[in-house]
Amino acid sequence: MRSSTAAQNGKENLLPEEQQNIITDMWRGISQKISETNIPSRAFRIYQDALPVCGMERSIVEKLASQNSLNHQLVLELLNKGARLEGTEDPDILLEESDSLGKLLQSTGQKNNLAALAEYRAKSSQVMEKRDAFIAGRIRSTIQPGETPLIFMGVRHKLEQLLETNFIVAYLIYRLPFKKIRDIGNQS
């Protein structure tokens, strides 16, 4: 991993070196935990947060891996060892979330910002529920006998509630200790 001042793809890395090291260590730990399962890579079917069902899934992963996404580098490594990649999310729902975020970012003035933030929060929760429902259905409908779903999802997802009747849900790392999503940016 490059230092916090090194240029990545023409852009400065905005994370302090300590945070970069934490992220690097986290992904190394996840990789190690996957290895420790002793499940052959060819038995994994990978489901990736924000990866649309589109027919270009591997190309998307390769591009993000080339841009130094440690998550996508790990996914690509597993694919090269025989794992299968599955388009995970409904593109229309992802666009709905993106549009909602765009409206928030375009709001101006304190009153408009507060109203836009309240609207975004309400809409975001509804969209996340739709995303999770689609993802859970996608996993149930695509997993094949003898395969193990390997799911890379962000902290806002609540898939375990939708999957625990069909699968034994085990975490490679424990849920992160944030009380609220906004706490992620406020860790000291």
How are the SSEs ordered, and which strands pair?
Blueprint: E1 7-8, E2 11-12, H1 17-36, E3 44-48, H2 57-66, H3 70-80, E4 84-86, H4 91-106, H5 110-142, E5 148-152, H6 159-163
Parallel strand pairs: 3-4, 3-5
Antiparallel strand pairs: 1-2
Low-pLDDT windows of residues: 1-11, 175-188
Structural class: mainly alpha
Indicate the radius of gyration in whole angstroms. Answer: 18 Å
Mean pLDDT: 85
> Approximately how much helix is present in the residues?
40-55%
Strand content: 5-15%
How many H/I helices?
Answer: 6
Question: Would you mind describing this structure in some detail?
Answer:
The chain has 188 residues and is mainly α. The chain contains six helices and five strands. The strands form two sheets. Strands 4-3-5 form a three-stranded parallel beta sheet, with helices on both faces.
Descriptive key words:
two-stranded antiparallel sheet, three-stranded parallel sheet, disordered N terminus, 188 residues, 51% helix, single chain, mainly alpha, 6 helices, 5 strands, disordered C terminus
Short description:
This protein is mostly helical and 188 residues long. The protein is built from six helices and five strands, in the order ββαβααβααβα. The strands form two sheets. A three-stranded parallel β-sheet has the order 4-3-5, sandwiched between helices. The chain has a two-stranded antiparallel ribbon with strand order 1-2.
